[in-house]
UniProtKB/TrEMBL annotation:
Keywords annotated in UniProt: Signal
Organism of this sequence: Nonomuraea turkmeniaca
Residue ranges of every copy of the ThuA-like domain listed in the record: 94-301
SUPFAM superfamilies for the chain: Class I glutamine amidotransferase-like
Protein name per its UniProtKB record: ThuA domain-containing protein
InterPro entries (alphabetical): Class_I_gatase-like, ThuA-like
The organism's taxonomic lineage, starting at the top: Bacteria, Bacillati, Actinomycetota, Actinomycetes, Streptosporangiales
Gene3D superfamilies assigned: 3.40.50.880
Signal peptide residue numbers: 1-25
Keyword Signal (UniProt): yes
Amino acid sequence: MRVLSIAALAGAATLLLTATATSSAASPGGAQNLGDPDYGVCRGTDPRCYHDWGNFDPAKGYRLLVYSRTAGPRHAHLGTPLGPGLNPPLNDDNVAVKAVIKLGQENGFAVDYTEDVAQLSSAGRLLPYNAVMFLSTTRDTLDDAAQTALRQYIRAGGGFAGVHNAFGTEYSWPWYEGLLGNANFYDHSANQPGTVVTVNRRDASTQGLPQRWAFTDEWYNLIPYPTRVRVLAEVDEATLARGVRGNLGHPGHGPHHPVSWCQYYDGGKAWLTTLGHDVKAWTDEPLEGDQYFVQHLAGGIKSVLGMTPFCR
């Protein structure tokens, strides 16, 4: 059993209350931001919120588990639902999963994938992986056992990558909202071209990216709005020809509209992006800026796996 001293406990309590807030700005008007809860865990950009208990040995290589189960609307980039078990046969339209597998082959990490919640039923099933990716999961995709396992895994120092509709998942679970950076999907603008602004170019996921780059997405509006995170990229709302107002009326976030960020959370690491809606972003079909999206995604995965420095 790991026993903490009184001093260590006091330090952890201090971190819990004061983890540095580095989000670029608060949401305009205040009402869109539902406060800054601590979720009862240490969270923020201070690496002392991370539990390095030696569970992930680089000598064993790096492994990512991609989870893409949907319990509601399903994004076209996921394609047809996958069969049970681990690594079931893929169809031609499962383009996002195939793209992540290719990223692994090109960047030196192994990828397993599943839409079977039983594969997430215990922390023991997850600990062989350096990180777990939720790839456009939808609504309540976890049962009670999988929720417990994910929380134990993160507390053991595990990594989490949330991509696109990972923000439209597990709405009724506050801990998961905290894992996303105190953020949740509310609505989105029309799928349209816009300009991504790289606001932090030190992180592994943003090194080498242009300061501004074109991309097409359905730009997510968020309630609540991320806090205590390191914002990595934003969308310039002024470049959205069809406007940022969401289909449910959200007016957007003004001059600081985040699309990617990172944080330490409850002992683990989380790298997050709302980008990735368009099918073309996951295929060889031309889409302006898709090479930068792929570069951004690969860097984020490598950082949360532990292959490169995290959340700089």
